[in-house]
Design a protein that fits this description.
Elements lengths: L39 E2 L6 H11 L2 H8 L3 H4 L14 H15 L4 E2 L2 H6 L13 H15 L8 H6 L1 E9 L5 E8 L2 E4 L6 H9 L3 E3 L5 E3 L4 E3 L1 E9 L3 E7 L1 E4 L4 E4 L9 E3 L11 H4 E13 L2 E9 L11 H11 L4 H13 L1 H10 L5 E2 H12 L3 H4 L1 H4 L2 H6 L5 E4 L4 E4 L15 H6 L19 E5 L2 E5 L12 E10 L18 H26 E8 L3 E4 L2 E4 L8 E7 L4 H11 L8 E8 L2 E7 L17 E5 L3 E2 L2 E2 L8 E9 L26 E9 L4 H7 L6 E5 L13 E5 L2 H4 L13 E5 L9 E4 L2 E4 L7 E8 L8 E8 L6 H11 L11 E6 L5 E4 L16 E6 L7 E9 L6 E6 L4 H12 L6 E6 L5 E4 L17 E6 L7 E11 L1 H6 L8 E12 L4 H5 L1
Parallel strand pairs: 1-2, 5-10, 22-28, 31-35, 38-42, 43-47
Antiparallel strand pairs: 3-4, 3-9, 6-9, 7-8, 10-21, 11-12, 13-14, 14-15, 14-21, 15-19, 16-18, 17-18, 19-20, 22-25, 23-24, 26-27, 26-28, 29-30, 31-32, 33-34, 33-35, 34-37, 36-37, 38-39, 40-41, 40-42, 43-44, 45-46, 45-47, 48-49
């Protein structure tokens, strides 16, 4: 194993069954078997080599049936394994249980945890990835030891063991020295040969000559002589296992390497040329390939999976999707240009692509797996193709609630139009009944006639896929290539009752065990379906509401009788829900309408009415937490209600001069009560009021009984509290704008409108210039407070001076500073006048100095606020004031003023000099919004302006050099998961993980994961 171990080994389904739901929800059960009907094996972290070998043994029918023939009377019972006097053979029992589950349990995947524990593998180190050839010998040795004393103790020897004979013949006396060897598998050379037949020929046909410096000592001649050495197969096993020596050692480079050159092997092979006795018929010497264990990766790590022939036709094979498309294209003649165009349009539309991906699934999909399925569909990731335009995939799904629905706290996603649910009450079939069900061929053009010898499948841990026999050629060479070959005798025939029947040969007690587990699984799935489809809807009854300011508002806010939360199955129809509500409302008379509602800042608003009683709630857009308004469909307490998105009410801030009365009908909370109380220094009073989105701006003015007033909107980027300098500018709405609706004007909740009667124009507060109204601050509020804190010794108290300096919006800040120095008598305190004005934030931290060449208004400083007089220069228009620090921290945060045209490298050098640091092994990083060290400034030759560094930013000096352009520097850690240990020990400790740093890697950003691993 390399230092990266199995870091890159993907295991998507390990956590599938551990997803828990929120309060009151049921844990998700494992999904049932897919249409291929074969079961995968979950990877425990690095057990892909074990999974591949176990699948091969399972699909060796003769081995499987021999194992099942051993009953509890010989093997014992697992429940007795802890009894001191009990004789329990744990390994074969666990293997029987595993095989029974793989054959008959209605799960997509099963686990090998119990089996590996029977091996004594109880920690991560013992389960670390091993060589599958060595595991084959270890597993068979353990089985042989476990079966000693049983009726089938020779199981492994009868099926897998063979013998070969090594002969050395003296060329002088012709004496033959013979040595017989037992073998479990044949280890053949890959280097220097191009096929399995060639390797066997060199082993069992060609002779090795002992001559010259390599003479043989003949016991008969009692001296060194010329001799020849040869080998032959004497006894052939029922199943021939061939191990390919893919890994070699380069003595020049002193390192291991993997042979990836082409190495072919036949589907059927006649071993007559390699056998000692050739008088047997060809049928006894012919073997057929039925399993290939494949290694993907290098000699220091990788991944195993297996190509296996389905000899008993237990799986359901159909053409791969790509082959089906090719067949359809051959049968259906379409204009090529149209097909290409349509395909391009669909691929560019994420809505149609995601819909197509989810439509292929039988139910919901884990959100974490949706991205992988999308990549398999279009060959490109979401982030690369769609993120820039559509944002993260979760955000896109949430923005299309009419198409997608997020389930289980957002961990799964499904199409909003659900598939038909199974009939209620349909219990699980027995294992025997399920086993007799044949594959339904139907009229699917993707099916092919089942060959006599069986189709091939790729069993890759949890994933099972179909492959063609022709795909085997791909495993002749490359980094993903054949590693072990399994052949079976051609004469082996399967009984007709075994074909398509996974229960064949399974003992009754194991059938019963799996039937009970299937019944529990079915019950869990039923409970989960009910739980996951149960939604809570809030019913709002119209009799408790009134229409006010374009929205629905409660008549009595001190009671909860207006709403009722109802739990309901989203698969049921609108008619079912309507009937349930009818039955709850005994006093209801007349028609009942159910309308989707939403609480907005202005109040409750109605959208679509559910009219199709046959439509499911799921399809109608009713989801968990939905609000439904129960009414007659026309009016609420005698007032007609406007519905739909175009009539959504808006809650607006209405400003008016003090002394101007508004229509009080429907008025919300008023910030200033009475004319003596004002909301701000300009004397403007603010109220909040809701209006229908379909009303015009002129309608708003009429509703407020100010028909002749100017309606003004705040200019962009200026808040209602006034811009810098205490003045605010408002744009007068044109006559055309007065005829447009609030929706057309794109107003939003919280926007502010100023209503200014003509009687208030051109006074000391309000002035009009063309279509702009300026609201000025009164003269008694035109000042800035300047503070100065003297820094004395620790024994003396800090002295503070505060002075109000008269200022207007047009006053230059340099004038404010100079006047403060004079009036506070601080000219001598600052030698040469090197001081500046700075604001403080809410925490008291000093902000960057303000530019003194700007006016109060242009600098964005509000009147009646405070400025601090501090030592130091103020930046000019081409300079940036920056905060910076060193990580790890070595002192307080520092400050510096630099030219914005400086490069990142020059800025770094200036900061290092300011901080008193030496060396060149440093780089700059930004401080993000949550005050954590963020991304580095990668291009050190770019200017600060080009890198988006602005005045007041905080940069962090970090140790370490940046990688060259186009390269990445990645920190690599070893991940250790101790959750399995806790589970095996039945402890209640929380899930614990550990990360152990193993260093950094510098690699091209164009490199693949495989290149990173190597």
């Amino acid at each position: 194993m390399s230092m990266f171990g199995d870091l890159f080994e993907e295991e998507e389904e390990i956590t599938t069954n551990s997803i828990t739901q929120g309060k009151g929800k049921v844990c998700e059960p494992p999904p049932p078997r897919g249409k291929l009907k074969l079961c995968g094996i979950r990877n425990q972290g690095s057990t892909c080599y074990l999974n591949s070998l176990l699948q091969t043994l399972l699909h060796t029918p003769e081995f499987r049936e021999e194992l099942f023939s051993l009953g509890p009377e010989e093997l014992g019972k697992l429940e007795d394994k802890d009894k001191p006097d009990a004789k329990v053979r744990v390994i074969p029992l666990e293997l029987q249980n595993l095989f029974a589950r793989l054959l008959l349990l209605d799960e997509q995947t099963t686990t090998t945890t119990a089996l590996t524990e029977s091996f004594g593998w109880t920690n991560n180190e013992e389960m670390a990835q091993q060589d599958v050839q060595e595991l084959n010998r270890i597993l068979f040795s353990a089985l042989e030891s476990s079966l000693v004393g049983t009726s089938d103790s020779s199981l492994i020897r009868r099926l897998y063991h063979g013998t070969l004979i090594n002969n050395i013949t003296c060329n002088e006396c012709h004496n033959v020295s013979e040595r017989e060897e037992d073998f479990l598998d044949l280890t053949v050379c890959v280097r220097g040969v191009c096929s399995l037949e060639e390797a066997l020929w060199s082993m069992f046909v060609e002779e090795e000559v002992f001559d010259e410096n390599n003479l043989y000592h003949c016991s008969n001649c009692d001296r060194l002589v010329h001799a020849t050495k040869s080998a032959k197969l004497r006894k052939l096993p029922t199943f021939l296992t061939v191990s390919l020596l893919r890994f070699s050692f380069d003595f020049e480079k002193c390192e291991r390497f993997k042979e990836t050159r082409r190495y072919s092997f036949p589907l059927s092979i006649n071993l007559r040329p390699f056998c000692e006795q050739s008088d047997q018929p060809d049928s006894e010497l012919t073997y057929e390939l039925f399993s290939i264990i494949i290694h993907k990766g290098g000699c220091y790590g990788g991944h195993y999976h297996a190509y296996i022939k389905d000899i008993d036709h237990l799986g359901h094979w159909e053409l791969p999707e790509d082959d089906i498309k090719q067949k359809k294209q051959k049968v259906q003649v379409k204009p090529p240009s149209m097909s290409v165009c349509n395909a391009a349009v669909e691929k560019d539309d994420p809505l149609s692509v995601l819909t197509a991906v989810l439509a292929q699934e039988s139910g919901s999909v884990l959100l974490d797996q949706l991205g992988q399925k999308l990549m398999e569909k279009i060959g490109c990731s979401w982030n690369k193709k769609y993120r820039k335009q559509y944002g993260p995939i979760r955000k896109f799904l949430q923005s299309n609630p009419d198409v997608f629905v997020l389930l289980l706290n957002g961990s799964r996603v499904a199409l909003r139009n659900p598939a038909e649910t199974p009939e209620q009450g349909a219990g699980p079939k027995s294992v025997a009944e399920s086993a007799q069900d044949g594959s339904e061929a139907g009229s699917d053009s993707g099916l092919e006639a089942e060959p006599v010898s069986g189709h091939w499948f790729d069993l890759n841990d949890s994933t099972v896929t179909v492959i063609r026999e022709s795909d085997i050629i791909k495993q002749y060479e490359g980094k993903e290539s054949a590693y072990m070959l399994f052949y079976r005798k051609h004469t082996l025939q399967r009984p007709c009752h075994a074909v398509g029947n996974p229960a064949y040969g399974v003992p009754a007690h194991l059938l019963q065990m799996v039937e009970e587990e299937n019944a529990k699984l079915q019950q869990r799935r039923t409970e989960f379906e009910v739980s996951s489809n149960s939604i809570d809807v809030r019913l709002h009854f119209g009799s408790h509401y009134r229409v006010e300011s374009g929205a629905l508002k409660l008549i009595n806010t001190h009671t909860n009788a207006h709403t009722l939360t109802l739990s309901f199955d989203r698969r049921r129809t609108v008619g079912d829900l309507r009937l349930a509500v009818y039955q709850m409302q005994d006093t209801w008379e007349g028609d009942m309408a159910l309308t989707i509602a939403k609480n907005l800042p202005a109040g409750l608003h109605l959208y679509d009415t559910l009219t199709d009683d046959q439509q499911s709630l799921y399809s109608a857009g009713v989801y968990n937490g939905s609000d439904l308004f129960v009414w007659n469909g026309t009016e609420v307490n005698g007032v007609r209600v406007q519905t739909g998105a175009e009539c959504e009410p808006l809650l607006l801030n209405i400003l008016r001069p003090g002394g101007v009365e508004l229509d009080s009908v429907g008025m919300a909370d008023v910030e200033s009560v009475g004319e003596a109380s004002v909301a701000d220094a300009s004397g403007l009073v603010q109220v909040m009021r809701g209006f229908s989105g379909g009303v015009t701006l002129g309608g708003v003015r009429e509703a407020l009984s100010l028909q002749e007033a100017l309606v003004c909107q705040l200019t962009k980027g200026v808040g209602p509290g006034g811009e810098g300098g205490g003045a605010s500018r408002w744009k007068v709405c044109s006559s055309e704008a007065m005829r447009r609706t609030l929706k057309e004007l794109t107003l939003r909740d919280g926007d502010t409108l100023l209503l200014l009667p003509h009687t208030h124009l051109n006074n000391s507060i309000f002035s009009v210039s063309e279509d702009v109204v300026t609201v000025m601050t009164p003269s008694d509020c035109r000042w800035l407070q300047v503070e100065f804190h003297t820094h004395t010794t620790q024994e003396e108290e800090e002295e503070e001076k505060v002075m109000k300096i008269p200022a207007a919006g047009s006053t230059l800040l340099s004038e404010v500073k100079q006047r403060a120095l004079v009036e506070m008598q601080l000219q001598e305190h600052f030698t040469g006048g090197v001081c500046c004005l700075r604001q403080r934030d809410r925490t008291g931290k000093l902000l960057p100095p303000v530019r003194e060449d700007l006016s109060v208004c242009d600098a964005g400083i509000k009147l009646m606020t405070s400025l601090c007089l501090c030592p130091g220069h103020a930046p000019n228009s081409s300079q940036l004031f920056l905060f910076f620090s060193v990580t790890p921290p070595t002192g307080p945060e520092l400050e510096i003023i630099v030219e914005e045209t400086l490069t990142v490298k020059e800025c770094l050098m200036a900061m290092l000099q300011e901080a008193g640091l030496d060396g060149t092994c440093w780089h700059l990083r930004r401080m993000d919004w949550c005050e954590e060290v963020g991304e580095p400034l990668m291009d050190e030759n770019a200017s600060l302006l080009e890198m988006g560094v602005v005045n007041g930013d905080t940069l962090v000096i970090t140790e370490g050099q940046l990688p060259p352009k186009g390269f990445l520097k990645l920190a690599v850690s070893w991940f250790m998961d101790m959750s399995d240990e806790c589970e095996r020990n039945h402890t209640t400790e929380s899930h614990t993980t550990g990360l152990q740093s193993v260093g950094c890697v510098e690699i091209s950003e164009e490199a693949t994961l495989h290149e990173l691993r190597c």
